[in-house]
Amino acid sequence: MNVTGPTPYVEFAGPGPLTGPPTAPLTWGQRAIWEAIVRTAPDDRYFNFGRVLKVPGSRTVAEVCAALAALMARHGALRTRMSGALRTTMSDAFRATPAEPYQRLAEKGRLPVVVTTEDPDRVLDELAARPFDYFGEWPVRVALVLDGDRVAHVVLVFCHLAADGLGAEVALRDLRMFLLRGPGVRRPAASQPLDLAHWQAGPEGRRAAETAAAHWEREYRRIPPTMFSSPSGSPAEPPIWRALLRSPALELAVRSVAAEHAASTSTVLLTAVTELVGRFTGHETCAVLPISANRFRRDTTDIVATMSQEGLFTLDRREASFTGLLRAAGPAALRAYRSAYHDPADRNRITASVSAERGEPIHPYCCFNDMRFADPGPARCDPAEITAALARTSVTWPMSQDKLNCRFCVHLTTEGVSLTADTRYLSRPDMERCLLELEALVVEAALR
User: Fold this and answer.
1) What structural domains and CATH numbers belong to the chain?
2) Locate the Condensation domain: which residues (predicted)?
3) Backbone angles phi, psi at 63, to 5 degrees
């Protein structure tokens, strides 16, 4: 990346926690993503993500840095780093005894900022390409893209321990507000991950955790040990690949099926993916881990934090028709999303206990993540339009790497439907076939 001039720093200072010391256990969301990071390292850059903000008006570097300082002051997650028994270098951290780290909130500090004239999307890719130092680095990276002597774009790359997709959108909204109205604008205090961690450890949090744990324990006693257990016979190099399906026909068909069955498009796709998992594995009962935003409490609606966690969705495929599966999927999806707000320590205990009882490890290794910020909504679509759109279907292969903490991961984005899989269990030809059969299943249901 071509850097313009010396690296400026954002000097920030913010309040400490509302109560207690500036340290706390990890929140449930932080602990869940930390466990995923540990299992994926050294390829844990997989969890980095970013946003590009077009700067409103005409702003100098100094003005943008002042807005960034206000953002860092407002949201404690951006001033929070890991602490604990693990060492601070990445190479040592993952070889250390896996003692439980904790979070530490800093009241002040200096954030380095890259200043460049390169394309913002390219800058984002470069900043996201290396893992974070979770113990020594601030959990956000920032670049300012200049047009002349003014800042045209701000690029932010987030550590997933600090924010999820919705948390990043809150940060962008607030940064834009500080740019428009000035860093001194008064706002009600923002919720902080440190305070959330204390609530989760308290009586109310424990009651919520116990309800979720009961669901995990009940379902873990009846699901297959894992979804993808048979070697594919055709592993690729590297073993982890992503296939991206771009299908205007699938987009139309999903909305049409959702309208027909009074369901969300997300539930339609979750059901279809689960059916495909069953077809490819032979399991009559399938378990998929949908990612839930977990932002249903008033104090978490606008928090910058990683709130998203896996729920446990189970579906019995003995019902012959896709329509029948959709009827069963609605209540099952509600149970799954409620179970996502859970204490990973409870889940780990249940996993170990049930695995010991059944004599083999229990884990679906099969997830579903609807990353769209809004469900496009049910809408009846013209069958002829759906059929005509099939000609525009494409499958590409945008990513590969060595390690991942899962074997089968479906992501819904505005680009399309992607499948990231371990080719030791699902070969690249089968990955492509799975996506195309997903399209065919939903299109057929829509045309009926």
Assistant:
1) 9-199 (3.30.559.10), 213-447 (3.30.559.30)
2) 24-303
3) -65, -40
